[in-house]
Amino acid sequence: MSHAPPVHSAAFRRRRFFNWFPLGLAYALLYMGRYNLTVAKTNLGQLMTKEDFGLIFGAGTVTYAFAFLVNGPLVDRVGGRRGMLIGLAGSCVSNAAMGLYLHHVLSSAAPTEAPLRLVFSALYAVNMYFQSYGAVSIVKVNAHWFHVSERGGFSGIFGTMISSGIFLAFTVNGWLLDLVEVAQPGSTTAERAWVVFAVPGVLLALAFLGELFLLRDRPGQAGHADFDTGDASSGDDDLPVPTMQLFRRILTNPILLTVAFIELCTGVVRNGVMHWFPIYVGEIWVLPPTHTLRFGEWTDLRWVLACFVAAAISGALAARAASGRRGMYATLAGLAFLAPFVQAGWGGLLMIAGVLGGNVAGWVSDLFFQSRRGPAAAGLYALLAMLTLAMAFALAVPDTLVASAEEGSGLRAGDRVLAIAGVSELQAWSDVRAAVACWEPVCRDSAWDAERCECRTSGGVPNASLAAERPIPARVLRDGAELSLQLPDPRPAQRAGDLRLLSARPELPMSPFWLGGLVFMMSLCVIGTHGLLVGHRHHGLRRAQGRGHRGGRHRRLRVPGHRAPVGVPRLPHERELVVLAVVPAAVRGAGLRAVPAHLERQAGRARRSLVNWNRGDGHPRLEAGGSRPGLDLPKVRPWADCLIDNGVCSTKGGRTQCLSTLSRQTPLVAT
Length: 671
Description:
By secondary structure, the protein is α+β, with helices and mostly antiparallel strands. Helix content is 57%, strand content 8%. The strands form five sheets. It has a five-stranded antiparallel beta sheet with strand order 11-10-14-13-12. Strand 10 and strand 11 form a beta hairpin. It starts with 9 loop residues before the first helix and ends with a strand.
């Protein structure tokens, strides 16, 4: 196993960029074609009820979960490149089909009679099946192009690209609807909703063509030499483990099962806040589309461009700066890059949460818990529990007080609606919304269904003779006096599936940013725990595949001549620390002298990450910033690398002999 990063040529780095950058962009577009359903629901009104949305999204989520059982082993056999191409093609076709079907329904004379729930459940499930190919394929491809020591910084960059997919899904899809409104003035939001499926379908097709020519599974397929990546699979062949054997190992691995249960819980919270929050703020709070918690807007593109330029300059300075200032420049680059997305609506805020959660959680784990993921994840879960409880007090339900109203609506800011559309028992703004929706309009090519408060092509009463202009009666309290008003009907004539909305917004009991801030922090915690557990899940999968360490909860290593056996935890970083602790006698016997500079740097990083030489829990470690008497870390590191490499490869009679390649006279024996 090679722990030193290889020295790559400029040509290799350039070719690697053209491998991973389009791959990250393609995966972001998969996000755009996955979460566009939420944007469509907020614009379809009664055509897709909240119950419909829940069932459709549930069908897709269940399919996505079980698809990994099939597609994971399949991608192991066909390769990451083919897996990604299959995912892009399938998602492209699925999104195009949803867009075409929705356009057909909205153009028909009876949109409410179409089996939208059934058809969309099937199409969205197919879409999510192919989406699962992307998640598996990006890991499969990138593992061959990056040495394990290069993956830390790269994971932050790649994670940012993936988070941008959420911005594309929630914000850019919303902006697309506004662009269509400019091209088709007078069209309703429901009539434009098909665009959020059609445009991602086109972009996914372009991504498919790009990956067809650029993406390669490994450097050897792109005209460069393959190299030892130094991870848990280093030195293994590429023959896939039999599927049933792999499933058996996974389902009997307590670490993987624990992580899977944790990810199930975080998935419930993540999807809850990610998808239902924009529906809540749109229907209950009636926030305008340009509000920061909805779609937002970039009003001053010069300021946005200036932030991106500042981020590029800071990034260039960070690449050339000394180690002492590199962190400062990198932080400035990140903040400058993320600043414009504060105004980019809910998708922009989720993108910021994704970037910060994925990077800050790892930083906290390294700084305060010596790279142990468990304590950091537990802390984030504790914070997540407190935020969830606090959210119950921030669900501000607005009453009937008007905060703002459009000109010509008949209402003013400060009015309190006492009765409207014949309904006088009004407790909240949702009652006002329901009463206005149930005011009978003129139904075009349809009939009025008073029970469902909508125009339908069947099951209603024709009302073509109804007066075309029927003002909505209302009684309001204005400046201390009750007034009876006749409000102009914002939609006097409707087609099947249309919904009338009052051109006014309620006064909220508290700022919407209180709940928005809580939900943002919840998203940050969920994404942070997900990022922390990915490493443990990947290591567990390697063991389940027969790679890396094997055995029970702890193994015991002893060195001939050493006093006591040492308990070795299964986590990879603690395994390396233990090897560093048990080889001083072997190093002294080898008589090492010169040590390469890169090994000295690795030894320095190891020294800073090791703590508490004997904490009393059976896990020996070194003191922070120092070493045990007689232990020369720069000399120990080559032996540690060698012993880690050989300590998992030779098993005889149920005992593992770990022989160094530098000296066969000092074996480590696992008992």
